[in-house]
Each structure stands twice: as structure tokens, then as C-alpha cells.
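Morning F.,

Quick status update on the modeling queue. The single chain you submitted on Monday has been processed. Sequence for confirmation:
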Amino acid sequence: MLYVPGDKPRAIEKARTLAADAVILDLEDAVAPEHKAEARANVRAALLAGGWRVPVLVRVNGLGTPWEHEDREMALLSGASGLVLPKVEDARAAQELSLGRALWAMIETPLGVLNAPAIAAVPGVAGLLVGANDLARALRTRPHPQRLPLLHALSVVVLAARAHGKLPLDAVFNDVRDPAGFARECEGGRALGFAGKTVIHPDQIAPANAAYGVTDEQAQQARALLDAWEEGRAAGKSVVTFGGALVEGMHADEAREVLALWTASQDSVIDSSDRSH
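C-alpha cells below.
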């Protein structure tokens, strides 16, 4: 998911052409208070213009801010695919703001982490987004290349989301001049169980897609495993092996997920190619 500042019309238009899986038009942290009204008007115009090939979410300003009501009203009336709500700390707030659109709850405070399971359980919540900058500040941690001070909190968010069938998305990586660090963090996030990455720059999209995507080789391996599983089951075998290893139902399910993700990525590549001509 690509964050795009709402007060940057050119960036919003460019986002239409990029290979992100979703776009978050941002009215919160990326926009200074004196530009909030202008940003809201820009986002409204972009939503009403249509033509987006991916879901477009709006990160509204948080509860208790002067802009919260106007932000939410604009997003709902202008056809946003969903709302991103910052600093969600309890399930009640998420429940009250489930207004018929997907709600993505940002977990970026200690209390939000502790209440993440209850927040993820709210029916209208589509997923949890980590806000690592605010969380690290609140926890008084220090920067670490492997994010060791945040690992427990990150895992809690993944556990909460996965337990309720929701999507956990990892936090942004701030230094756009450090592609190696970004790639390392993507790999670490996927190893923890995150479904994807939130990004702040177009150059981060391709490496994020690569880290969280499926290679052709992985897809072929998954297809071969699934073929072996289905052939074995059709033959009435009580035990199915593939590559010398025992194959169970969960392995077949995982192979199907891999193939579904690979197919989706191929469709995205084709669509991107079509738009480039």
C-alpha cells in the first residue's frame, strides 16, 4: 500500500500509474495543519474523477482532531474504498467507525498493541497497519537494524490479525535512500507473517512486491506439489509424498495460496503493461 500526501496533486496523479496493490491518500501525518482543507479537496477530486485500477483508501485525521468529521464525510461521500484510522486503541472506536466501508486500523501505540486482538475481531476491520514511528517513540526504544525492540509488538499485530482472518501490513521504512535496508526490512516482515508493506515512495514498490510476491520457480514448485497431492488422493493413497517429504492437507492449502498470489501478480503485470502503452 502506497501512502500519497493529499496536498500533492501531482503525486496523486502519478499514483494512478504505479504498481502498488492499493493507494492510501493521506490527510493525516503527511499534511501540515494549514494544508488540511486543500488536501481534503484534492483527495475528493481524485476520488470523484475515478479511473483507479486499485482500491483507494483515505487516511483520515484521528479522533478528537478538528478535521476528523469532515475527513470521514468526504471519504464516504466521494467513494473511497475504505478508511485508514490512525492510533486505534480500542475495539469500540473501530466498531463505531465501521460505516459500511473497509476500516484499516493503525496500531501505533502501546495500548493499541495490547488491544490489537479485540480491534482485529471487529467485523468491519479489514486489516491492521503498523505505525512503527509513533510506536517506537511511545515505547522509548532506540533504532535497531533488525527492529529488535519492536519485534514483540510486531508479532502481536500479526497474531491478532491472522487469528481473525484479517490482513496485517508492516510499517513504512523512512529512509528512501537506503534500498538495502528497505529490502532487509521487507524480508524480516514477511518472515514475521506480514501480508505486505506500507510504502512512502514509488521506488519502494517494486522491492516490496518482490519480497512479498511469488517467483515463477516457487509457483511451479507449488503446482507440482498440488498435482502430487491430488493424484495421490485420487488414487486412494493414505500417505502422499513430494520431494521425499510427507504432504498433508495444510501443505496443499499453502500451495493453493501460493498459486493464487502468483496468478494475481501476473494479472497485475499484464495490467501495468497495458497502461504503459
